[in-house]
Design a protein that fits this description.
Strand order of the largest sheet: 1-4-3-2
Order of helices and strands: EHEHHEE
Strand content: 15-25%
Helix content: 25-40%
Largest sheet: 4 strands, mixed
Number of helices: 3
C-alpha cells in the first residue's frame, strides 16, 4: 500500500505559487466539493470572505502518486 502524505508550504501568494507548481509538476487544482463547480462558487455559497478564499490553494497529482501540496498564506515578510 502506498504511503499517503501532504506537504504544506507557507508563502505570501498561495494562488501564484500553486499555479506555478501545478504547471511544473503537471498537477491539477484540488477539485471543489461535490455540488460546486469551483472553489470560488463554494466560497460564495458558504459566506467565505474574499481574503479567506485566497488564503490557501491546494494542488494534487492527477495520478494519485505524488503528495497533495497546500500553499498557505502567512503574514511574515521573506528575508
Amino acid at each position: 500500500m502506498p504511503r499517503r502524505f501532504g506537504v504544506t508550504i507557507d508563502c505570501r501568494d498561495p494562488l501564484f505559487l500553486a499555479a506555478f507548481w501545478r504547471e511544473v509538476l503537471d498537477y491539477q487544482d484540488h477539485p471543489a466539493p461535490p455540488g460546486y463547480a469551483s472553489w470560488a462558487e463554494y466560497a460564495a455559497a458558504n459566506g467565505v470572505s474574499a481574503d479567506d478564499a485566497t488564503a490557501g490553494a491546494t494542488i494534487v497529482d492527477p495520478t494519485g502518486v505524488g503528495p497533495r501540496i497546500y500553499f498557505q498564506k502567512v503574514p511574515e515578510q521573506s528575508q
